[in-house]
Amino acid sequence: MNRITGGTAAAFALAAMLSTASAAETVSIETARGPVEAPEVPATIAAFDVAAIDTLDALGVTVAAVPQPLYVPYLEDLTGIAQPVGSLFEPDFEALAILAPDLIVAGGRSSSQVDALARIAPTLDMTISGDTLIADAKARIDAYGTLMGLEDKAAELKAGLDAKLTQARAAVDGKGDALILMANGPKISAYGAGSRFGWLHRELALPEAVEGVDVQTHGEAVSFEFVAEADPDWLIVVDRGAAIGEEGAGAAETLDNQLVAGTKAWKNGHVIYVDPASIYIAGGGVQSITGILDQLIAAFEG
């Protein structure tokens, strides 16, 4: 629920007057909700989606306002440059309205706030779907390239992503199957090809150790007996607690037990702890994807 105070309402009015006073040329941008008219080459962008911030940063675009914390180490420099405007889930509407950005980019965790944010400035819902992550990521690169007049740079980023995917496919080819697990304190859940992390299976032709895993936002809750029975050649592990800075048992500690230790993956040193913030918080950003692929290439080739 969005609670709008009297001060926030006044700030909304101020932002509306400022935006009306400075009409700009517009360009049609493809979003998760279809094409939307946005100001061409906006000077001041506020972004609430970390995948969007990731890709805009890769294009060389400086975002004026971001949520805090960002969680992702390679984007931490932005916290000293960009204005804080709330969190990933709860925008600070008053601070945002006073900033009066030319454009707001939302998506993922902030997608439910799009309509409220659109009262301040044109707002794009750039949510990336887990079951079409790579296709959506490329579409967002194109969209931001069009938005900022950086089509050549966008094409370069997409070509680099395609090359990295090709390299990763070659690295995993013939190396066996894999099970993707997320550890959340002492609990674990599994992710299959249809899940938010399933692009690792789909895009890399990486066989699943267990087929038919339930598609759920936080994965299918499983036991250590499940992992032992699956006996994967590789374990790809996401540490949710580490991703969001929580204290408590880490993924390595959680998995260090006799059942997991009996798997081929554990015995052969084939346990890959992917960068948690990249895949969990910034998933779909071009830097996130290429970073995860680099980890997998190094592990499978090594």
Automatic annotation (TrEMBL):
The entry's keywords: Ion transport, Iron, Iron transport, Signal, Transport
Every Fe/B12 periplasmic-binding domain range: 44-302
InterPro entries noted in UniProt: ABC_transptr_periplasmic_BD (IPR002491), Bact_iron-sidero_bind (IPR051313), FatB (IPR033870)
A Pfam family annotated for this UniProt entry: Peripla_BP_2
Compartmental location: Cell envelope
PROSITE patterns assigned to the protein according to its UniProt record, in alphabetical order: FE_B12_PBP
One GO process term, biological-process aspect: iron coordination entity transport
Protein name: Iron complex transport system substrate-binding protein
Family listed: Belongs to the bacterial solute-binding protein 8 family.
Record's signal peptide: 1-23
Protein origin, superkingdom: Bacteria
Lineage: Bacteria, Pseudomonadati, Pseudomonadota, Alphaproteobacteria, Rhodobacterales
Keyword field contains Hydrolase: no
GO CC annotations on file: outer membrane-bounded periplasmic space
